[in-house]
């Protein structure tokens, strides 16, 4: 079997298994097996596969047909132009979350006198924390997660991408690890916490509900339980004028703004490129930098 025949076989098999992205997935999985990028696959279509490559490709196709995400199958996912290691211990970074990073970067570039300190709570793979450190010069990022397994992945990403000196990892619940050691000295807190309402979990795509960690998905009855706990903690750590950025799902904007105490915060809901509510930007009120 050569590369052309393998691609045909993979596309047809995944299509029969009702995988919507059958064409792209077949290419990505074959690229993983052969070590040839997707462009190279089409330039070397007559190159034969070894028996070992054929066997590995078939195994990956069967796992994908069962719904296992491609990112877990190949062990990486692109985010903000960088490849991040991912495992089933972490949520797969989404393009929608890039809005949070872009918003934070713009804030630091606009407010050059603010303290170069950020916190990423629920860091998972470390995609947000490492991206921020990469894009904002001299920024120190404190990245927190409840899961030690997730932190292991995040540390690996920080080291791979040259950010281990500027991203500091701590295990704990929400912002608790920092509350005893830090005061109002943080400029931005990013939070991509679980925000899927519990009742919506069964309706998620199979790739998500069966393979991604439920600890990183379930946000309680209305999806905002963890944000209710986070907001008063964030108020204690942020400088006046600092930002709390909270990722949400479509339809949660009004509810998320309502849980921000009016005397303490100014809340705005930002939409993603598809026009869906995606990010709550909460500015701590008071005199600031």
TrEMBL record:
Residue ranges occupied by any Methyltransferase domain in the UniProt entry: 119-247
Highest taxon above the source species: Bacteria
Pfam families, per the entry: Methyltransf_31, PrmC_N
CDD domains to which the protein is assigned, alphabetical: AdoMet_MTases
Enzyme class label: transferase
Gene3D superfamilies referenced in this protein's UniProt entry, alphabetically: DNA helicase RuvA subunit, C-terminal domain (1.10.8.10), Vaccinia Virus protein VP39 (3.40.50.150)
Record-level Gene Ontology MF annotations: peptide chain release factor N(5)-glutamine methyltransferase activity
SUPFAM superfamilies (alphabetical): S-adenosyl-L-methionine-dependent methyltransferases (SSF53335)
GO biological process: methylation
Documented EC number(s): 2.1.1.297
Reactions catalysed: L-glutaminyl-[peptide chain release factor] + S-adenosyl-L-methionine = N(5)-methyl-L-glutaminyl-[peptide chain release factor] + S-adenosyl-L-homocysteine + H(+)
Coiled-coil boundaries: none
UniProt keyword annotations, A-Z: Methyltransferase, S-adenosyl-L-methionine, Transferase
Job of this protein: Methylates the class 1 translation termination release factors RF1/PrfA and RF2/PrfB on the glutamine residue of the universally conserved GGQ motif.
Family named by the database record: Belongs to the protein N5-glutamine methyltransferase family. PrmC subfamily.
Name the record gives this protein: Release factor glutamine methyltransferase
Organism: Desulforamulus reducens (strain ATCC BAA-1160 / DSM 100696 / MI-1) (Desulfotomaculum reducens)
Lineage: Bacteria, Bacillati, Bacillota, Clostridia, Eubacteriales
């Amino acid at each position: 079997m050569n590369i052309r025949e393998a691609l045909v076989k993979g596309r047809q098999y995944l299509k029969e298994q009702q995988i919507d992205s059958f064409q792209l997935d077949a290419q990505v999985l074959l690229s993983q097996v052969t070590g040839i990028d997707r462009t190279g696959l089409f330039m070397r279509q007559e190159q034969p596969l070894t028996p070992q490559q054929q066997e590995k490709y078939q195994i990956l196709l069967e796992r994908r047909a069962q719904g296992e995400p491609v990112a877990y199958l190949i062990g990486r996912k692109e985010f903000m132009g960088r490849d991040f290691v991912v495992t089933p211990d972490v949520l797969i970074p989404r393009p929608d979350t890039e809005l949070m990073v872009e918003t934070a970067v713009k804030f630091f570039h606009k407010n050059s006198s603010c303290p170069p300190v950020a916190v990423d709570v629920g860091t998972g793979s470390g995609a947000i924390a490492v991206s921020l450190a990469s894009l904002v010069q001299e920024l120190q990022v404190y990245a927190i997660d409840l899961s030690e397994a997730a932190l292991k992945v995040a540390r690996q990403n920080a080291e791979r991408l040259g950010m281990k000196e500027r991203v500091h990892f701590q295990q704990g619940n929400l912002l608790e690890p920092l509350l005893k050691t830090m005061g109002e000295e943080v400029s931005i807190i990013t939070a991509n916490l679980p925000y899927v309402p519990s009742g919506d979990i069964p309706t998620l795509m199979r790739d998500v509900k069966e393979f991604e960690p439920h600890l990183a998905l379930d946000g309680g009855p209305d999806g905002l339980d963890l944000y209710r706990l986070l907001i008063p903690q964030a108020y204690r750590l942020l400088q006046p004028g600092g930002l709390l950025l909270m990722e949400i799902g479509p339809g949660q904007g009004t509810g998320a703004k309502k849980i921000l105490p009016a005397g303490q915060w100014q809340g705005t809901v930002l939409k993603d490129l598809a026009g869906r509510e995606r990010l709550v930007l909460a500015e701590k009120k008071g005199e600031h930098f």
